[in-house]
Each structure stands twice: as structure tokens, then as C-alpha cells.
Amino acid sequence: MNNLRGVPVESKRIALITTGGTIEMASSSGGLNLNPERPVLPVGRDVIPAHINIDHIRFSELPSPQISPIKMGEICSLIDEVIRSGKYEGIVVTHGTDTLEETAFLADVWLDSDIPIVFTAAMRSIDEIGIDGPRNLRGALLTAATPEVHKLGVTVVLNDEIHSAGRVTKTCTSNLSSFSSPGYGPLGFVDQDRVLVHRAPLWRVHLPPGALRMNHEVGLLRVAAGFGHREVHHCIDDGYTGIVIEAFGRGNVPPLVVEVAEEASSRGVIICVTSRCYIGRVLGVYGYDGGGADLEKRGLILAGDMQGHKMRLLLMASLGMGLSKGRIEELLASL
Prior knowledge:
Elements lengths: L1 E3 L2 E3 L2 E9 L4 E2 L6 E2 L17 E11 L6 H17 L4 E5 L2 H14 L6 E4 L12 H12 L10 E4 L2 E4 L4 E2 L8 E2 L7 E4 L2 E4 L20 E5 L6 H9 L4 E6 L7 H12 L3 E6 L16 H6 L3 E2 L5 H13 L4 H8 L3
Parallel strand pairs: 3-6, 3-7, 7-8, 8-9, 15-16, 16-17, 17-18
Antiparallel strand pairs: 1-2, 4-5, 9-10, 10-13, 11-12, 13-14
């Protein structure tokens, strides 16, 4: 037993899985980069709480734009192996910020864990003024050592805030408070040596049990005024089996997109509609050609308030694991 502020705390063993990202980067002549000869991961005893022992598992040394859906699936499989080992009370994954929310989301929808799984990162490298990596890692370790956190699903901890993997997103290119959950807010906070949970996620989506397989023939496109139909055509011509469309507002698209989307749906392509808005659900409110209600009649699936890039991963996994269109609609029914 160790002691924090006079309160006995049980020792915890946490697996630290590292993948690369800014939290491991340093300055070089060509800009920030990963340098295996100069390890900068902040794992000193001033970062690791006294009651926590870590085992470091290095998955990769990659900037996050180089972490593909294949790599994301491999990270999830590694986390599953660590869970099944039964050796740890929690898991922390460090990851670059650009695609962190996608990897964390895929882990959340696939993994079934009775221990906390926490993703964290850094917006600033070790060579910049006001670095955030050490504090973020410490907060993530404290969160992973809090047993009740597993009930929240996979979480993301940065800037002393605890967010749900389902809703968190990177909102600013550089600010330390970039990660937020628009319309929802954080689940809780890390306050010095305490983890304060204020609420549970309002929704979570779970894939059925089974091996994680990804169908990579799934496209993602965003509509704009008079734009989007050619891109749907390209997806059809390339043999895609699924498409996610980030539509206007409530889930509405330009007229030309309607025709080609209906054609794709009639060929068996699964098309899910999200909104390019940060907050709010797509819903079958408008019945005109291209309105949400019209798209539903034409066989498209409205995906609630799921973000487009996360919906793409969910659709990739759903199709890869053999889920039918009806089963995918059931998964999204609560959103």
C-alpha cells in the first residue's frame, strides 16, 4: 500500500501501450519528428503516480496520420490480448492526436473489458514551452487505475478532462484544450491525484462478439453546395460496399447526390448519412428530394449524431464482420 495525501491507495499495475505521436517527438532540422535514438516519452517517476507500476509495451513509433485502419485493428487486438492476460488493472494507450479519436472509438465499439482503457496524447512536443504530455500521461494513468472507469467504456484523457471515445473530437489544430465532446462535455475530470466522474456516456454502440475484421472498401465524403454526386459515382466505380455521406444539417443532400446514392443503394451498397454539423442528430424531417426523410425512403441509413469519420470505421467493422443492413440499422437505432 502507498499513500497519497494520507489516504491508503492500493498498488495498481497498468499496461502502457505506446504507438508514437507528438508525445514521443522532439525537434529536428526538418521539424518535429520521432527519433528512436532520443526517447522522450515522459515516463519518469515524477509522472507515474506512486501507487502505479507500469509495464511498457511498444506497439509502434508512428505519427498518427500513418496509423491506418489496419493498424487501428492491430492496436485493438493488442489491447484485447493485454486484457485477456489478466495481469493488469488498467491500460493506457499513447497515440498521436490526429487519429486518436478514431482508434479509441474502434476500441470502444469492439472491446469488452472489465478494466479501464484510456487513450492519451500530447498537443505539444517535449521541446516546446508549456508541454502537456507529462500531465496528460499522469492523468491517464490515474484514470486507468480507477476501477469504476471501465463502466464508461474506452475514454480519452487530455487537459485534465475525461471524454467518451464515442463523442470526443479534436477541435483545434494546436490548442491544449483541443479535445472536447461538442454538445455533451466531458464525463469527468482529473483533479490532482483524484479522478472525478460526473456522468456516464449518453450512448455507446457495441459490435457483436467475434474477431475484428475490417472491410476497407468503405468511402467517406462530405457534400457541399452542388457537390458530392461525382464522389459517390467514384465509390461505386471503385467497387465500394459502403459509403458514409456527411450531409447538410438534419441529413439533407443536393438533388444530384440523391439520384446516384439511390442507384448505389439499389446495387447493395450500404450508405449511412451523418451531418457535417458538430452537434445534433440527422433525422427524417424533410421530405423534399434529398431531405432526410426522402433519403430513408430511398434506402439510406440515418446515423443519428455519429461523426462521419467514426461512422466509417463502424461501417468498415460491421461489414467486415458480416453484419446485414438490418443489423447495422439496429446498432444505430439508439443514436
